[in-house]
Design brief:
Layout lengths: L2 E6 L7 E6 L3 H5 L6 H14 L4 E8 L5 E8 L6 H8 L37 E10 L2 E10 L5 E7 L7 E7 L7 H4 L3 H15 L4 E4 L2 E2 L11 E3 L15 E7 L8 E4 L5 E5 L9 E7 L8 H5 L1 H4 L1 H33 L11 H16 L8 H17 L4 H8 L4 H12 L3 H26 L1 H6 L2 H10 L19 H11 L4 E3 L17 E9 L4 E8 L5 E2 L1 H16 L9 E8 L1 E2 L4 H4 L8 E5 L2 E7 H24 L1 H11 L13 H5 L10
Parallel strand pairs: 3-9, 13-15, 16-17, 18-20, 19-21, 20-23
Antiparallel strand pairs: 1-2, 2-7, 3-4, 4-8, 5-6, 5-8, 6-7, 9-10, 11-12, 12-15, 13-14, 17-18, 22-23
Helix pairs in contact: 2-5, 8-9, 9-10, 9-13, 9-19, 10-11, 13-19, 16-17
Length: 681
Amino acid sequence: MAAVSAGLPAQSGPPLTEFELSVGERKILQFKRKPQITAVAELVWNALDANATEVHVELHRSSMKAITDVVVTDNGHGMTPERARSAFQAYGTTWKTTRTHTEGGERILHGRNGEGRLFAFALGDRLAWESTAKVGDDLGGVRIRGNADHATIWQVEEREPVREKPGTTVRISVPQGKPLSSLERDDASANLTAKLAFYLRAYPHVVVTFDGKRLDPSDIIVGEPVDLDLDLPQEYVGEDPPPVVTFVEWNKRMGDRKMLICNAEGIALGEHGSDWSDGIISFTPYLRANLFNGLSVDDLHGLTMSHSGLLGAAVKAVQKHLAVRGAQISAEVVRQLKTEGIYPYDDQPASGALAIERQTFDVVVTAARHALPNKRAARNLSVNLIRTALESNPGDLHTILDKVLALSDDDRRHLKNLLDSTDLTHVIGAATTVTNRLNFIQALRKLLADEHLRKNLREVDQLHPMIAKNLWLFGEDWHMTRSELGLTNVLQAHLDDHLGEDVVLEHELEAVTQPDGRSGRVDILLFRSRKDDNSTERLVIELKRPTVKVGPKELGQIKGYAHAIIDDPQYSGVGSKWRFFLVTYEYSDKIRRDIRQKDRPAGLADVQDNYEVWVKNWGEILDAAEKKLRFFQDQLNYEATDDRVTQHLRESYSHFIPDALTQPRTQTEETDPAGTSQDEQ
């Protein structure tokens, strides 16, 4: 792309040349949106391409700790005025275009597009290069300046050298208020190291520091990088060397997790795709191929179209390796907990739902493995708290992980995403809810079946609070509803006239006491409402004392009460649907015909378009609820043991579960009840 060059006579001082690029500001300012760590990496690459053996990235801060300048200093060969004018006079021009190695053939070149310097706009608005280089037998100096306010204008000024040896200093002035959060994160140096890893491993004598810390890949790499074979489309089969994905695992969480597009030597040229999300493994995949040499920023943007087959093969290879590696890590964690004697599950789960709970525990404890305490007592407590949360209320798990385990923000976020994106915790939550409700039903049966317990059961502080917390007995939709305070006055107004002075609204229960100070024995009226954009439904429940046998009198009272409420001017004609329940331990045969009518459900004593009146004894209510719960429980256990669900786990979450669960069971394993996995032997 052409440029207009004009030599401007300086008023005083050394010659100054100003260039106006014809490419246009919009093209240049696109670099302001580039990732900040990538911008720093490009400045480091420019220094390394100049044969620098030392590159220092400094973050200058104000008294308020805000970054004011980013300064990159190197000891490379520097720029002569002539080379500076050649490099900066046009967009995309660089001396590297026709070369593969640095001057003297010492090292591999990174850049060939003349774009790296423009990445600096992602860090600040005012850019300045101060460079010293050999000019013949002497040293010459040059200063290059650019400004985002006039992005097409660049100034190259010859001046006396500012240092005694060749090298370059780049200073980027950060505007006040511009956040450089990516550079201030704890993982900033690790993210930069990941981009330079192969280069730094190939040239160990090169020193790069970031904010005072030397970048050393060996500090953060786990094991050795692994080359993943690709199932290459036919058009790539002839490439020499063939494209490959190198999978590098890190020992700390990386915030920048995109696939890096590299030449065959692993020199990162750009990024592709979205961040990889994995709650267990921190890694970077490097797609290495010589055909990526010389890619421009525009080429990288179009990579999905030009090399979709290769990119798809790379993604599949990474997913496959994640499954294997994740299963290995999970199995190692489980084995360690078993060795320590603190793994909280038996080898053979008692039910399908428990197997799902155990698999989810393995996912969570594997993802949180680095945050588990080292001391045995604290470690055992943490493991048991995780198990308890899964067993009782998986929704509490995030709170426990926050309060008990010292997870980093990134680890917490990745674990939350992992749990939210799988249905395992939902299965556990449903199974736990069913179990708790069945236990409640059995406990209430015991209370009501025992004559002594039944006579001594106090409604105000015993029966009422239990029922109020378990309104799913009257329909699942009522479980999360609240009392409608505005309904209180209307219910109270008709209470004495129809139900009598022995019935008390639940809001007034605290005032009901016996002479000895204990809670009184009364009938209780519970009421709830639920609303949406189209309708309002209200539930009114009269809980009769277990000692009261309901007959025609009580049935007539609840009907009269329902009619009075429906006809009250405040609710007449407003389109609400009412359900009135008269709940008792026992009812008389004298009302059996009223509540056992042809073509009506059992217990429905009166029904109109806007209301229903029901009479139910506790045996009927508990039987109906238990049948539903048993059905749900059977379905949950079926779903948890059904081969289709197991296959779904293998396909979707195989890298979160132990090795034994990632492979289909053999016929021998299916028929041998004593069979155990390798992990359990």
